Amino acid sequence: MIGSLQTRTKGDKVIWAIVVVLTMMSLLVVYSSTGTLAYKLSKSTESYLFKQFVFIAIGLIIIYFAHKVNYTIYSRVAVFIFLASIPLLLYTLLFGTSLNEANRWIKLPIINLTFQTSDLAKLGLFMYLGRQLSKKQAVIKDFKKGFLPLIIPVAIICLLIAPANLSTALLVGATSLLLMFIGRVDLKHIGLVVVAALIPIMILVGVAAAYYDKEEKHSKELPAIMQKGRMGTWVKRVQGFMYAGKEETAYQVQQAKIAIAKGSWMGLGPGNSESRNFLPHPYSDFIYAIIIEEYGLMGGVFVLFIYLAFLFRCIRIFKQCPYAFGAFLALGLSFTLVIQAMANMAVNVNLFPVTGVTLPLISMGGSSFLFTCLAIGIILSVARNVEQSEQPVVIPEEEAEEA
């Protein structure tokens, strides 16, 4: 059976192995961290284990079929997916399901599954960027012909995502600029975008500092104009990171630190987490802290190593791919997954303000999990075609004798 799977699955075998390792770890950690959630909703932890198993099974099927598709087809559908994501993002902002004052999801009828439209937008954007970078190489240094066709789509997607999910918009923007840098876009053009993006970030940091009472260690009330939308949440998260006050975000980070401290070097063992009863969202946003608590610092380093190995293999695909679109496509999708993973881990160890991004392939399943699997399937599609292009052409003996 293993031999049959090896013949049916093509592409980078190391990436396939990484997917298996991360999904198996996901089963263990999600099962361990959903006890409190199951108690609150009067469900069994086994129901969440089964749900995660189903998501993993569907995800592996998506990877398999996506890697069987020739990656050049993704170039043809890239424009359609990108354009379709714009009205979907607008609809989500106006009529989407609201959670914590943020409209990030739309509920799909019949199957009753919430769908985060930013996941589709990210996938469509990086497919479109790969297509544009491959086509614009001859004029890539030109501002109007090379740079504007790249930065305008990035700006549109980021501006539509930002009101409900600022952290995701920043990660998408940073990943896009990194891909443009590798695609030989002029550094001065990238620098202008960085400076423009830093202005609102510095304003946010300034507001957070101005409306925080250091003596009383609490956030001051913001003016009414600043309390609209997610501004208040952003300010509190920055304050929680800067001052470690008594805000909810600081509480999350404090509980994550407790979990990490309890884990020490070797951890408490699988299923023995104590902080899962106190840490908000231990099965998604703060699942990395649970991993360290149960498997120790060694387990945390192992997870970090796995993501770096995934990035290394994708860079290898980028170098070996003979066509620019496939190279940029694999690199762009790998960057967005690895940078998201690094952001999640940085939040858990208090190196970054609380963002709400999940740990790819490990956090509890949802639409984000399935889109992650689709992205990996597309990367493996590129790897499969690279693998086939490197295979020597075998000439039949009869033809060789004639030659």
Task: Spell out the key features of this protein.
globular, mainly alpha, 5 strands, about 400 residues, three-stranded antiparallel beta sheet, two-stranded antiparallel ribbon
Explain what you see.
There is one protein chain. This protein is mainly alpha-helical and 403 residues long. The protein is built from 15 helices and five strands. It has helices at residues 2-8, 13-33, 35-40, 45-68, 71-95, 117-135, 143-161, 166-182, 187-210, 231-243, 248-263, 287-320, 324-348, 367-390, 397-402, and strands at 97-99, 102-108, 113-116, 212-213, 218-219. Strand 1 (97-99) and strand 2 form a beta hairpin. The radius of gyration is 23 Å and the shape is globular.
- The overall average pLDDT, rounded, is 84
What is the terminal-to-terminal distance? 41 Å
Radius of gyration: 23 Å
Strand order of the largest sheet: 1-2-3
Task: Outline the secondary-structure elements.
Layout: H1 2-8, H2 13-33, H3 35-40, H4 45-68, H5 71-95, E1 97-99, E2 102-108, E3 113-116, H6 117-135, H7 143-161, H8 166-182, H9 187-210, E4 212-213, E5 218-219, H10 231-243, H11 248-263, H12 287-320, H13 324-348, H14 367-390, H15 397-402
Antiparallel strand pairs: 1-2, 2-3, 4-5
Helix pairs in contact: 2-4, 2-12, 4-14, 5-6, 5-7, 6-7, 6-8, 6-13, 7-8, 8-13, 9-10, 10-11, 11-12, 12-13, 13-14
